[in-house]
């Protein structure tokens, strides 16, 4: 009886595993096809200067519609990384984003571009070259591009990564630490890699004005960032109270649904027109 139950449990487990493997293989195949059929798109989320409310940059965010279903980046970036598809995908993202932003700058709108990097992208042999190529093809000046990395990428055996990022920085490209404060060795990367910017993780910003510890931690990160001469960006601003506190703390820049949602290039076009009119 026990044996029978145990056997059945193994069978159920195996069937479950099987379904999971099939799902992952299907996803990998779909990703490959999506890349060939150009199913990926970019959205851009404005980042504003908190003192003046002016848009200083946009962050490129990849979007995938799998048929009529939207798949969030957090669901397909892992599999894309595992299969290596992240490398061609990231090269496309970088080229496309540089091209769009260079066009906005050509209309005399002074904005920068932030692009997220993935680990496998940075370690791929063509990384440094593909970044330079995206810049030269689009005409975007290196100083207008910020590359975002997360702390985890800079912790273990990161010498090669740090050396590649340092090379890019010596070309004038800016570096940012994304999701700052969530890693276990928050300050270590700042010692190993010269960066220009830290982006405070939304988990801190979420507690602003509601949670004393998170408010204090946010204030501390802003001060630390400024003491280190860095631009400090707060991410995930959703409530007016958060915006007010960040302004009062002297945080440099802000990003979040309250300020602006990620939008297609056409949305940025109209934002640019209003923006250029208001400064004309
Ligand atoms: P991230 O780089 O930290 O990007 C910010 C994420 O927060 C974006 O989610 C954005 O839509 C979302 N967000 C912005 N403001 C708010 C807000 O006020 N409230 C809330 N709840 N969310 C807000 P998204 O686009 O789903 O991207 C998630 C993550 O996936 C990104 O986090 C980044 O790590 C990764 N990712 C996105 N696009 C790319 C890409 O092109 N390349 C790579 N390598 N990673 C990407
Ligand atoms: Mg980011
Ligand atoms: Mg982030
Ligand atoms: Mg993130």
From TrEMBL:
It comes from Thermostaphylospora chromogena. This is PAS domain S-box-containing protein/diguanylate cyclase (GGDEF) domain-containing protein. It comes from the Bacteria. Residues 24-276 form the EAL domain.
């Amino acid at each position: 009886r026990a044996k029978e139950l145990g056997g059945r449990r193994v069978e159920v487990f195996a069937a479950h595993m099987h379904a999971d493997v099939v799902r992952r293989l299907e996803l990998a195949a779909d990703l490959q096809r999506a890349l060939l059929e150009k199913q990926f798109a970019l959205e851009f989320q404005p980042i504003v200067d908190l003192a003046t409310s002016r848009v200083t940059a946009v962050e490129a965010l990849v979007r995938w519609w799998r048929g009529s279903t939207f798949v969030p980046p957090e669901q397909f970036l892992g599999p894309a990384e595992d299969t290596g598809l992240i490398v061609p995908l990231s090269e496309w993202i970088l080229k496309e984003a540089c091209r769009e932003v260079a066009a906005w700058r050509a209309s005399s709108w002074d904005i920068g571009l932030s692009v997220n990097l993935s680990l496998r992208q940075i370690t791929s042999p063509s990384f440094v070259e593909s970044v330079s190529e995206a810049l030269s093809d689009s005409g975007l000046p290196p100083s207008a591009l910020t590359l975002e990395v997360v702390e985890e990428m800079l912790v273990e055996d990161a010498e090669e990564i740090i050396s590649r990022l340092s090379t890019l920085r010596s070309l004038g490209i800016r570096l940012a630490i994304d999701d700052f404060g969530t890693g276990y060795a928050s300050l270590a990367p700042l010692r190993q890699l010269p960066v220009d910017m830290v982006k405070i993780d939304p988990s801190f910003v979420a507690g602003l004005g509601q949670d004393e510890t998170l408010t204090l931690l946010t204030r501390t990160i802003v001060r630390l960032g400024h003491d280190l001469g860095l631009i400090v960006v707060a991410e995930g601003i959703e409530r007016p109270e958060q915006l007010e506190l960040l302004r009062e703390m002297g945080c440099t820049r802000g990003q979040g649904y309250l300020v602006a949602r990620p939008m297609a290039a056409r949305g940025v076009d109209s934002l640019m027109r209003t923006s250029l009119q208001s400064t004309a």
